[in-house]
Specification:
Number of strands of chain B: 15
Number of helices of chain B: 13
CATH superfamily of chain A: Pyruvate-ferredoxin oxidoreductase, PFOR, domain III
Radius of gyration of chain B: 21 Å
Structural class of chain B: alpha/beta
Mean pLDDT of chain B: 97
Strand content of chain B: 15-25%
CATH class of chain A: Alpha Beta
Structural class of chain A: alpha/beta
Shape of chain A: globular
CATH superfamily of the largest domain in chain B: Thiamin diphosphate (ThDP)-binding fold, Pyr/PP domains
Helix content of chain B: 25-40%
Oligomer: heterodimer
Low-confidence stretches of chain B: none
Mean pLDDT of chain A: 94
CATH class of the largest domain in chain B: Alpha Beta
CATH topology of chain A: Pyruvate-ferredoxin Oxidoreductase, domain 3
Helix content of chain A: 40-55%
């Protein structure tokens, strides 16, 4: 990676996109000893509406501009967020979408990975609330920007102890499915 | 060996609350307002743990008034707000300046005028900070750009407030207030913390709150037996109102002079590639982060660009600006308002081309936008 590796997590308010951004930044900056900046934008409502969080990661030094300029990897959990926010993905970047939610897949010089994230959270783990954690597992494996160990530590530091196993499983599903996606 | 420092990914507003605690703040009074709410929220939990007090007042005006009261009782005192709250606090801010009561006011700027755009960033309170309250009022305002800097500048704001017995503003914006970066909390003693000067008057009844022997007289805490009067009226050494025109004149000049005479102590700036800069960017807060990116890109293109980033915006850093602009053929001023700081830059640099770059749509000025202006002058 160079000076800046840019990630954007997008979906609708309440899907945990800001938490996903925070966890990614902590995995990089606290547990992998890189430099990270996390920012977000959202409207007055805390549920619904397009929501996005951005994380800029660097190997060293200071990250000045905190917002995305040329995105290396973007997640979209809803069609609205995908349509609204995909424009900044850079050439050869990655777009990860929820295959049930995003039907109108944008065209561009980027690689699209498609996976039923929310349905997997519901079907395999019984809780759609861990969709963001599955997403983090997918992104960690697809991009290699943070180590699996750092990601797991960061996730577990942010979730209630009672849900440690649930979140571990969610993360592992993400790691495993991303390997399959990369193989295809 | 010293214990390892706490290293934590923190929101800007959290770094502000932690900086206040590090500086010895023991009193917070305020009224919640987006995008500054987290500062009060965090201190409502943390202040009681150290024996401090948090009070949510009935409104913004009450928040400022109680902050002044906390300080007069001898505690380092803080309030936090955003634009609409700043408007409401102005009368009390003037009172604090006139009565020379140290306090720190955090303003996490959002879009205005009026209630404007609560969840979007802005830098449109620069002039309201300087001129919002009536009269010739002394103003100190610091402008951090990075989350760790919010911590250190909040500490500095308390130091300046206590040292100069005056209200001090910390101005940042929604972007830095809500974004997260790693802050390494310094050990006690690592950063300078200035405590209020104590009076040496032996008989408490002889204490004068505006003792003319001092440029900045020590402020004795209420509740320890000192008796004095505090008023927004022009006052004598004992704090009681005066109609003596000589004393009125001297008092009005004195509160401004204590800032003017100590500008070099109050100023703080970061300079990047200014020595040979032909295109100088003058930017603070979140806009300075975009400017830093743009100047670096411009240098890669062989353009002699530089950045002057003031960490003190009031008193305006005119001498550092003149020095940094000595070779500049143009000074670019990106700011999230429709032209405020740019006026001070023009005043400071007569005869030099000054170009403002302004945005008020709730989005940050991008590095590309600044680079586009720099490119015009290569």
């Amino acid at each position: 990676m160079g000076d800046r590796y840019e990630l954007r997590f997008s979906g609708s308010g309440g899907q945990g996109m800001i938490l996903a951004g925070i966890v990614m930044a902590e995995a990089a900056a606290i547990y992998d000893n890189k430099v990270a900046v996390q920012s977000q934008s959202y409207g007055p409502e805390s549920r619904g509406g397009a929501s996005k969080a951005e994380v800029i990661i660097s190997d060293s030094g200071t990250i000045d501009y905190p917002k995305a300029t040329a995105i290396d990897c973007m997640l979209a959990l809803t069609q609205e967020a995908c349509t609204k926010y995909h424009g900044d993905i850079k050439k050869d970047g990655i777009l990860l979408i929820d295959s049930d939610e995003v039907k109108d897949i944008p065209e561009g010089d980027f690689k699209v990975y498609s996976f039923p994230i929310i349905e997997t959270a519901r079907g395999e783990l019984g809780k759609i609330i861990v969709s963001n954690i599955i997403s983090l597992g997918l992104i960690a494996e697809l991009t290699g920007i943070v180590s699996h160990g750092a990601m797991e530590k960061a996730v577990l530091a942010r979730v209630p102890v009672a849900f440690t196993e649930l979140n571990k499983k969610a993360l592992q599903i993400g790691f495993d499915k991303a390997r399959e996606l990369k193989g295809n | 060996m010293a214990a390892e420092r706490v290293k934590k990914l923190m929101q800007g507003n959290e770094a502000c609350a932690e900086g206040a605690l590090y500086a010895g703040c023991e009193f917070y009074a305020g009224y919640p307002i987006t995008p500054s709410t987290e500062i009060g929220e965090i201190l409502s939990y943390k202040l009681p743990l150290i024996g401090g007090k948090f009070i949510q007042m009935e409104d913004e005006i009450g928040g400022m008034a109680a902050t002044i009261g906390g300080s007069l009782a001898g505690k380092k005192s803080l309030t936090a707000t955003s634009g609409p709250g700043l408007s409401l606090k102005q009368e009390c801010i003037g009172f604090a300046a006139m009565a020379e009561v140290p306090c720190v006011i955090i303003n996490v700027m959002r879009g205005g005028p009026s209630t404007g755009y609560p969840t979007g960033p802005s830098q449109s309170d620069i002039m309201a900070t300087k001129w919002g309250t009536h009269g010739d009022t002394p103003v100190i305002a610091v402008t951090p750009s990075y989350v760790p800097e919010i911590f250190t500048e909040t500490v500095r704001a308390f130091n300046l407030a206590e040292k100069y017995r005056t209200p001090v503003f910390v101005l940042f914006d929604e972007i830095i207030g809500h974004m997260r970066e790693v802050v390494t909390i310094p050990h006690p003693g690592e950063l300078e913390v200035i405590d209020r000067a104590k009076t040496d008057v032996e008989n408490k009844e002889d204490y004068l709150p505006y003792d003319n022997r001092f440029e900045i007289p020590p402020l004795a805490p209420f509740g320890e037996g000192y008796r004095y009067h505090v008023t927004g009226l022009n006052h004598d050494e004992d704090g009681f109102p005066t109609n003596d025109s000589k004393k009125i004149d001297a008092g009005n000049r004195k509160i401004l002079a204590k800032i003017e005479n100590n500008k070099e102590d109050i100023w703080s700036c970061e300079e990047v590639d200014t020595e040979d800069a032909e295109v100088l960017v003058f930017a603070f807060g979140s806009s300075a982060r975009s400017a830093s990116f743009a100047v670096r890109e411009a240098r890669k293109q062989g353009i002699k660009a530089g950045l002057l980033r003031p960490l003190t915006i009031w008193p305006f850093p005119d001498e550092p600006l003149r020095k940094a602009a000595s070779k500049a053929k143009v000074v670019i001023v990106p700011e999230l308002n429709l032209g405020q700081t740019v006026l001070e830059v023009e005043r400071t640099l007569p005869g030099v081309k000054v170009e403002g770059l302004h945005r008020v749509d709730g989005e940050p000025i991008t590095p590309a936008e600044i680079l586009e202006v720099i490119d015009k002058y290569k």
